[in-house]
Write a structure and sequence with these properties.
The protein is an alpha/beta fold and about 190 residues long. It has a domain of about 130 residues: Rossmann fold (3-Layer(aba) Sandwich). It is about 20% helix and about 30% strand. Strands 4-3-2-5-6-7 form a 6-stranded mixed sheet, with helices on both faces. The chain has a 3-stranded antiparallel sheet with strand order 1-9-8. Helix 2 links the parallel strand 2 and strand 3. It is globular and about 45 Å long. The two termini are about 25 Å apart.
């Protein structure tokens, strides 16, 4: 991590305690909603890995776990917003309820494309949950069914969210002002 992007440059938006409380509340809601139903929790790698790990421990009903990876294509020849979805770690979800868990809802394009991809596997229904819902960026009609926090349009890191693969390990969510106040296009089409 370069010195100009050290942890001392961060402005904490959501503390570790606030995140823990929100994840426990969400786990209780999920446990109640899906009680008695076959549930698979599908985390979106890599940003949601910490969130989904904490959430699955807060869900008090039997459930299966799987993952998908959604990443923007890199390279000059690809248009911004192109998304690659890797389903190699997705278990059989046919006939099961799916809780799709992602780190952040920004434009909504990632969630929209993931739901479309998962529907091809024949789940009973797909419900989504995100840790963060970024205000003022939505470009599609789909919205998450659950969210823990609404945040302003800022570039955020921590609790799984990164900047150039740094900061994921932080137990809180913080604004990274060195990147610029408002979120940049480099965050992709989350």
């Amino acid at each position: 991590m370069n010195d100009s992007l050290s942890s001392s440059n961060l402005r904490v938006l959501i503390t570790a305690d606030e995140i823990e409380d929100a994840v426990h509340r969400l786990g209780a809601e999920v446990s109640e909603r899906f009680s008695g139903r076959p549930l698979t929790i599908v985390g979106v790698l890599t940003g949601a890995v910490i969130f989904v790990a904490d959430l699955i421990r807060s869900v008090r009903i039997p459930h299966r776990i799987g993952f998908v990876q959604a990443s923007s294509y890199r390279g000059e020849a690809t248009a911004p917003g192109a998304l690659r979805i890797d389903e190699a770690l997705l278990p059989d979800i046919a006939g099961r309820d799916v809780l799709l868990v992602d780190d952040i809802f920004d434009t909504g394009r990632t969630l929209e494309r993931l739901v479309t991809a998962l529907k091809r596997h024949g789940p009973a229904r797909i419900v989504s949950a995100v840790l963060l819902w970024k205000e003022g960026r939505q470009e599609v009609h789909i919205e998450p069914d659950y969210f823990c926090f609404r945040i302003p349009n800022r570039f955020v890191v921590g609790y799984g969210l990164d900047y150039d693969d740094d900061y994921r390990h932080l137990p809180f969510v913080a604004e990274l002002p060195a990147v610029g106040g408002e979120a940049s296009e480099s965050e992709g089409s989350r």
